[in-house]
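Data availability (excerpt). All sequences and predicted token strings are deposited with the supplementary files. A representative entry, RNA recognition motif-containing protein, is shown inline so that the format can be inspected without opening the archive.
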Amino acid sequence: MREESYKQRKGFLEKNTTLHLSLVRLSVRNIPRNIDEKDLKMMARKALVEFAKEAKEGKREGISKEEARRGGQEEKEEEAQRRAKGKGVVKQAKIVREKSGAGRSMGYGFIEYIGHRWALMGLRWLNGREVAHLTVEEKEKKGGDEVLEVSKEDKKRRLIVEFALENVQVVQRRKDKEKAAKGRLPRTKEEREALDNDKKFKGKGDRKRKWSKGGEEEQEKGEKGKDAEEKQKGKGNPEKWDKEKRAAQIIARKRQKRRMRGGA
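Structure token line:
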């Protein structure tokens, strides 16, 4: 099966130049059909814990410095962001299902880690692992382990894990969408507060007209008309008119500040 997979993947890479081996996404085959995405994600997390434990005990070699550097600067930045946000290292766990019927599992899926180092650890521990050795934490019983509920035949299955093939164009589109989504969302606390204030400002009585379509133009025209009318009235005493105008502007600004404080 592994030789067939190797030949097949080699053929895909030779025929399609947009395909490449992913550094963070794993292809997992020979999965029992009753295992879902939640179980697969659990297996992905457990693989990292067990790999680190075995490396610490000297049962296997850990990740070398050269392997840790493969991800490059971009991976370092993502790792720093992940730690700052307190997120896990398993980005996605997906089971491929039949499109027709009840969406039954097709027996293979994908695991995507946040970086190449984690993907290597997951691959080396999961590849060739018997399903019977994969356990889940029992929530009701602290510290206890419970074997995944699979048939006797499935327990003897060994997972086949490889780095997945990905299309460069699809990956780039996915990254562009993620960047666009990040750009639309307020990132800092100040930006979120400013957005909330804007929403409140839009819903305040006659000020709503200012934010409506064409509202700003109407308001500007109205203000210009008022200025012209007041100027016409104050032709006889321009100094008095200027003082009154400045006083009115100051009063208007103070009122606006009070309204803003009341709405915040």
